């Protein structure tokens, strides 16, 4: 245990995901040894990101505007919505450069042990989007694309907007063959 503000720094760093006590201590002492200018820059960026970055009103992705660049891109189809846990999952899928639909960020996953239920996620907003979307072009609500790729680990499947609320399992995602998508 260290004194005062140094221990406070270690404690705060230790609250970050993936940072254990030893890593927190190592980062804290790295910061103490670093140039004043670089530490101030880090502090300024942390404050600025909290002040300026918000969440897209449509999909929940991090965004500097009311709508993120994906939701405001008219070239992307509104007929397929890829549901993901976090914004970082969008980055992983976008790197593949093949998905041309939209996204919906749930903001986490259902975790009964951790006390996270459906009401803690952006499921109501998802159902609202599905209900207001254009109707599917065929009787099949889900469309499988031809080329399979390894799934992002948190991909929850791709939905065609539909007014139907049938709980059928969605095979619509091109990654659905190996996805961990729960049955809905
Ligand atoms: Zn968006």
Give me the oligomer status: single chain
On the 0 to 100 scale, the average pLDDT is 78
Number of helical elements: 5
- Give the CATH architecture of the largest domain: 3-Layer(aba) Sandwich
Name its key features.
mainly alpha, Helicase, Ruva Protein, domain 3, Dna Topoisomerase Vi A Subunit, Chain: A, domain 2, three-stranded mixed beta sheet, 8% strand, disordered C terminus
Could you please describe the fold and organization of this structure?
Helix content is 33%, strand content 8%. The protein is mainly alpha-helical and 184 residues long. The strands form 2 sheets. The protein has a 3-stranded mixed β-sheet with strand order 4-3-5. A two-stranded antiparallel ribbon has the order 1-2. α4 links the parallel β3 and β4. α1 packs across α2. Zinc ion binds next to loops.
Layout of secondary structure:
Blueprint: H1 4-14, H2 21-33, H3 36-52, E1 54-55, E2 62-63, E3 81-84, H4 87-96, E4 102-105, H5 123-132, E5 158-159
Parallel strand pairs: 3-4
Antiparallel strand pairs: 1-2, 3-5
Helix pairs in contact: 1-2
